[in-house]
Amino acid sequence: MTATFTELTEVDAVVQQLIAEAGPERVWLFEGDMGVGKTTLIKAICRALGVVSVVQSPTFGLVNEYTTQTGDSVYHFDCYRLRNEAEALDIGLDEYLDSGNYCLIEWPERIASLWPAHYYLIDLTVDPDGIRTVKTALS
């Protein structure tokens, strides 16, 4: 899938397309440069999933756990500050990935050898005119 948006009001429609395309896949990997809007997109995804917790970047804590209206957990990771993949294993990343809950991971390239066999890859870019492009792939 490839989708574009320029206004934040358009992001919810893109999110609905992402959710439909991902189907039952719960591990979502978000690639893109700093400031491209990964966290903004994840906030919209969490809204669509019914998260009732405050959604913010887990930059310093590495992982935030959010709760949905139905009591399910959604995990949001930011791997930017990881020094190595061992740090991800130390927080139990493999257990999160095996939980069956949504795992939304920013900067996944920092833990590439730990990716599960199946995941939903979302690549977000922005051009000089502010048009954001979302490209996806299911693995």
TrEMBL record:
It comes from the Bacteria. One of its GO terms (cellular component) is cytoplasm. Coiled coil: none annotated. One of its GO terms (molecular function) is ATP binding. One of its GO terms (biological process) is tRNA threonylcarbamoyladenosine modification. Keywords: ATP-binding, Cytoplasm, Magnesium, Metal-binding, Nucleotide-binding, tRNA processing. SUPFAM superfamilies: P-loop containing nucleoside triphosphate hydrolases. Its main location: cytoplasm. It is found in: Cytoplasm. Belongs to the TsaE family. NCBIfam families: T6A_YjeE. This is tRNA threonylcarbamoyladenosine biosynthesis protein TsaE.
